[in-house]
Amino acid sequence: MLVFSYLKSDYIKAQKSFFIFIFGSLTAFWMLPSVAAPAVADTMAQRVQACTACHGAQGQAGPDGYYPRIAGKPAGYLYNQLMHFRHGNRNYRLMTHMVEPLSPAYLHDMATHFANLSLPYPPPAPVSASPQALARGEQLALHGDKALRLPACAACHGKAFTGVLPFTPGLAGLPRDYLNSQLGAWQSGARRAAAPDCMADIARRLGPADVAAVSAWLASQPLPADARPMAALPEPTPLECGALKQPTAHAGGTP
Amino acid sequence: MKRLWMACLAVLVASGVWALWPSQPVAVPPTQGTASSPEQIELGRYLAVLGNCQHCHTARGQLPFSGGRAVPTPFGTVFSSNLTPSAQGLGGWSADDFYRALHHGQSRDGRWLYPAFPFNNTTHITRDDSDALFAYLQSLPPSDQARPAHQVQWPYNTQAALKVWRALYFTPGTPQVVNRSGDPATRADAEAQRGAYLVNGLGHCSACHAPRNALGGHADMLSLQGGLMPVLNWYAPSLHDPSEGGVQHWPLADTVALLQTGRNSQAVVTGPMAEVVQHSTQHWRSADLHAVASYLKALPETAGAARNRQVPTATEPASVTSASSAGARLYTRHCADCHGPQCEGQRTADGQLAYPALAGNRAVTLGRSANLIHLTMNGGYGPSTAGNPRPFGMPPYLLTLSDADMAAVLTHVRTAWGNRAEPVSELDVQRLRGAGTR
Q: Which pTM does this prediction carry?
């Protein structure tokens, strides 16, 4: 035990002494089951550290302006996305790699863990866009565009853009690059949801300038103090959406 | 002289004719089986699990066994076949056709199959097992998904090339079970026979664990001496070498636990082997796991073991020393929370392994550093299994650590706390950026 604490306090110096260091690691190795104290916390927070490395502390949004916040999003939505990565309806190499070995039950536990977090969010990063673009973005987000048959984002994602239980994600607090790439993925078919795939239909009605405008405006909206998703929408959604009906079922096996 | 020229020409023409002559389906003995029974279908289902057939024969999100999964090779991309009973799959096939494919690596129409399909292993599958597998596949819901055309470069995409490859590297299996167990006393033992059958046949362990040359072959295609998996660049460690993946000195229970739950008292399974545990071995019957564990334990040890234990001379190059001190700082900052300040790993209160020790860990000190770099770069989870349903995970560091920092921290863990492995260079890391995951 002496050797052990000596090593712990001064392990770099210990490298110089070959004997102590061999002895130390052997001691550590042999005594592992009893000595490896303090034991690691047997919690979900500990288990999802692989997630928060990119998605920010506790899932609060990543530092590099791409990874979306996941804390406080509806559990049903988060679970569906994890399953979409497993089944190729969403494609991001690292995410697929992360979720592929995990069972649906475990993924559901992870989704619930992040959904139950209620965290304060920092103000959004400044967005560079012209006042005209921001005005157009606001128009699309709050009112839509009848001529293009575009419903307002708020009509489904909630008037404060915090999402709606159980399957609709919030849009506030997301990085602009993430919003742009998701709209692009909906347009190209790289991101898909259960049919009828309302979000793909909407994204395909948006031109490049409208995508840039709406992402700029949304990314500059702060999350309200109460960032929890709404329990229900005041009115029915303007489009029929397969993603809102039930947890996504997949006929296919997991390859 | 003229005669010599004529002889050379004759040999050339003869080889050309041999290589280019269309191949007829090899004759196989007709099946003795009658109509398939529920028992036979159930046996076939289990055999398909033993062989992990579904993993390669299903594309992401598609119907099981409907094929179309891309298998990258150094010669191009091969797509797996649809095995469901449809016109695009094995709809018109007989049990004899299926046995021909497993045993000879030949399609129903006489076309030679690409060795991405491990027919060097499936050739050892017995006729009864082949018939059961076929009965199971025929019982599946059909999928009309057509296999995408292979994208293999010339000349590797020709039947002549496949013929040459087969002549070099393929021998059809015999009813005699291949048994390389080192202990002659166990050769006749039914369990050892079963272990040999599973390792060399259905389990197709050598498909990854055999070394491969530039043609994707090896003199002994059932070798388990360790090989670098092409394109993916994961190293499948030697199962003969206790300093790599050999389990000669492990208690049987540890090998069984690793295959069944993805972890044992000291180790967690990672990389492509984690996929094998996830889709195949965690579902094996206990007797089969024991048979394989005993067989692997009895594999003769090879001398290669010394390679990874080389102790560097006392005067290490200055660059290594300075990298190590930078590495030690990075280790404390990024790794020590989970792997412990002395690389000793961490357990949960019930004594189960959460994060493996890095000191004395052979996955860390392996001669080839590719696996360690993949793990650090991409992080990831072990498989969810009944025995370990909620495994702990490792964050990816590809965004956090530069190539130089990753090389430094990996050099540190490979050379500190009693570990004595070669340092990792920045170039080693750079080469593997963006590789290693599917």
A: 0.87
